[in-house]
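Budget justification aside, the reviewers requested a transparent look at the raw inputs and outputs of the sequence design task funded under Objective 1. We therefore reproduce one unedited record. The lines immediately below are the structure tokens for a 443-residue chain.
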């Protein structure tokens, strides 16, 4: 291993908006737009309001906005709140192949908070966002997702690194201080998967808020001269060896300065765990093509990875978080409700006898492929004897669908007119000289 932490820091500190390919800028802008929508939607949820109230209580008199609420607080409090809001309902971006990294919910909230605090431009925000993700996604790939095998929730462990880099970039830190910011972030990583075993699902949303908040802390301390270890990623007691059963340190700098791993970002179509997306699209497409109802379905089989079977084969989810984590429940819901709408996933769905009964008749079947495998083959048997099968490789949002998703997620909080106007303004993010308007309450 050869000073991977330092190399990443030098790269991130030197990255400039002017050097970014148009494709990378467009990908970053889309992810920022998507994350803003997810946070605004999340702001209306009861667990989010608890975090918002805490942020307003503990971080008053700042210049950073809580999305969906409009209140201005100190940057760490805004990062905490917006990170939790962006992940509040399984709507935020991820990567393909999977890297245990959430490019939007752990990098935009801290970057936006610092940008608003210091009066930075839209271009500065985009450049910082890309810098944070180029580092974070590589760290996630290096873990091979084995940190989750040990019981860690991956975005809570990779997120502080991306958040720290983005904030440090906005603060203009040089390579030495950027190295310190990354070094500090390593001691702020955390988040346990115990919520997936039956209760306490609210804490899942907090992991991304804490990762975001950690980035502001790490960069702010580094800016003031606070030091962190220069080998925090690759060292004997560094992140990879402590958090992972196995890892590939070469991934930390693979393609650095040549390839943009930010382009691996994908946006969700459904408010469900990523493992369900391919199956959800497959069943919805089959239903649209063959015109059957959920009542017509006798049984369903869904292929997937061993991880899907181990973590997401939840036939009787106890709360909404587990329902969104459950492939059987989400597949059943998609045959009775509009699966793209967050409003479909509520307490009435959790109590719906028809959805519950069909979820119990969904069988998950293991097929080959590691964690990065995203496809599923769905086979439906109808009560009249007909059988249909469809394979879907991905199920994520496709080009041109983001405007519709943005309006779906934000119209309930903002109203249709304000939601459409905000989307239009965000499309020109790189032309904005300041960002104090983003998240501000209506005049």
């Amino acid at each position: 291993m050869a000073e991977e932490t330092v190399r990443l820091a030098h790269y991130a500190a030197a990255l400039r908006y002017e050097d970014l390919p148009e494709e990378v800028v467009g990908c970053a802008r889309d992810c920022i737009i998507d994350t803003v929508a997810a946070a605004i939607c999340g702001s209306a949820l009861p667990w989010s309001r608890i975090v918002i109230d805490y942020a307003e209580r503990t971080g008053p008199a700042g210049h950073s906005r809580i999305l969906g609420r409009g209140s201005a607080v100190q940057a760490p409090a805004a990062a905490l709140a917006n990170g939790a809001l962006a992940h509040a309902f399984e709507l935020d971006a991820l990567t393909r192949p999977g890297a245990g990294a959430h490019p939007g919910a752990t990098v935009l909230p801290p970057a936006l908070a610092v940008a608003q605090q210091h009066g930075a431009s839209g271009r500065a925000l985009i450049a910082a966002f890309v810098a944070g993700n180029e580092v974070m996604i590589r760290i996630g790939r290096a873990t091979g997702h084995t940190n989750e095998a040990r019981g860690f929730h991956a975005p809570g462990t990779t997120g502080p690194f991306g958040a720290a880099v983005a904030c440090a970039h906005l603060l203009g830190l040089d390579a030495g201080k950027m190295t310190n910011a990354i070094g500090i972030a390593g001691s702020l990583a955390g988040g346990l998967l115990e919520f997936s075993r039956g209760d306490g699902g609210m804490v899942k949303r907090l992991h991304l808020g804490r990762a975001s908040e950690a980035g502001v802390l790490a960069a702010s301390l580094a800016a003031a001269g606070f030091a962190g270890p220069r080998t925090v990623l690759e060292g004997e007691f560094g992140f990879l060896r402590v958090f992972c059963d196995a890892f590939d340190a070469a991934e930390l700098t693979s393609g650095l300065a040549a390839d943009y791993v930010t382009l691996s970002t994908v946006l969700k179509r459904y408010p469900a765990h990523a493992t369900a997306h391919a199956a959800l699209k497959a069943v919805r497409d089959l239903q649209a093509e063959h015109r059957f109802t959920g009542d017509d379905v006798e049984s369903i089989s869904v292929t997937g990875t061993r991880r899907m079977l181990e973590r997401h084969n939840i036939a009787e989810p106890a709360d909404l978080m587990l329902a969104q984590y459950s492939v059987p429940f989400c597949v059943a819901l998609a045959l009775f409700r509009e699966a793209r709408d967050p409003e479909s996933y509520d307490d009435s769905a959790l109590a719906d006898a028809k959805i519950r009964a069909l979820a119990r008749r969904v069988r998950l079947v293991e097929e080959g492929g590691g964690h990065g495998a995203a496809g599923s083959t769905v086979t439906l048997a109808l009560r009249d004897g007909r059988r249909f099968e469809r394979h879907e490789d991905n199920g994520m949002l496709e080009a041109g669908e983001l405007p519709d998703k943005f309006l779906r997620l934000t119209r309930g909080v903002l109203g249709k007119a304000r939601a459409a106007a905000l989307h239009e303004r965000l499309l020109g993010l790189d032309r904005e000289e300041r960002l104090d308007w983003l998240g501000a309450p209506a005049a």
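The chain has two domains: 4-266, 274-392. The longest strand covers residues 297-304. Computational costs for records of this kind are itemized in the attached budget.
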